[in-house]
Amino acid sequence: MDISGLSVLDQRIAGCRACPRLVDWREEVARTKRAAFADWTYWGRPVPGFGPPDARLLIVGLAPAAHGGNRTGRMFTGDRSGDVLYQALYDVGLASQPTAVAADDGLELYGVRITSPVHCAPPANKPTPTERDTCRSWLVQELGLLRPTLRAVVVLGAFGWQAALPAFAEAGWTVPRPRPAFAHGGHVALDDPDGPALHLLGCFHVSQRNTFTGRLTPEMLREVLRTAAGKAGLTAR
């Protein structure tokens, strides 16, 4: 566990300006705002990971929402997707409260950290393959710092799955070939030549498209989180 290293990494991520299109978009959104948040000072920068540095379970999303993480400065905070995710984490005993509205709202995660393969809010929620690949080095570094305690990962959605697999390989875990396909509830163990395997689990993304249509129900999400917690050695209810 490297507390100072993770803190420094988070600061470096928040200062990144590597992708011109994403920089322009996130800053334009922060200037123009949404009417409902006119009195907010938007974060308008890359959003680093959130959670303890000794996390045993990592949740990997897609990218910050324009008026969620890009506004509040914290992963899945201030948007409908976050409402679903944090409620589920609270329900299974991995979060201190069921809501996430601001970076200073007192929310704590227990043994869990949340990150994403793309740290800037992208137009239409669709980063380009080049932007995804440019951002990968941050995830590789984060995985390296979490590696001493990390035992399981839940990846939300096919895009996150495709983006994360190369990062796990670069960080030193053995990714099977051919690469495993994404599936909700899917489970793959990534061998580690220097330690225990990392358990990788797939889950449909907590997007409104999935939650409003019933493709992902609260119980489906809770079940994946409980399974992942068990693989990580965490106690969930």
From TrEMBL:
Pfam family, one: UDG
UniProt domain Uracil-DNA glycosylase-like: residue ranges: 48-225
SMART domains, alphabetized: UDG (SM00986), UreE_C (SM00987)
Record's keyword terms, sorted: 4Fe-4S, DNA damage, DNA repair, Hydrolase, Iron, Iron-sulfur, Metal-binding
The keyword DNA repair is annotated on this UniProt entry: yes
Domain of life: Bacteria
Example GO molecular function: uracil DNA N-glycosylase activity
InterPro entries attached to this UniProt entry: UDG_Type-4/5, UdgB-like, Uracil-DNA_glycosylase-like, Uracil-DNA_glycosylase-like_sf
UniProt-listed GO biological process terms: base-excision repair
Similarity-based family: Belongs to the uracil-DNA glycosylase (UDG) superfamily. Type 5 (UDGb) family.
UniProt xrefs under PANTHER family: TYPE-5 URACIL-DNA GLYCOSYLASE
Protein name: Type-5 uracil-DNA glycosylase
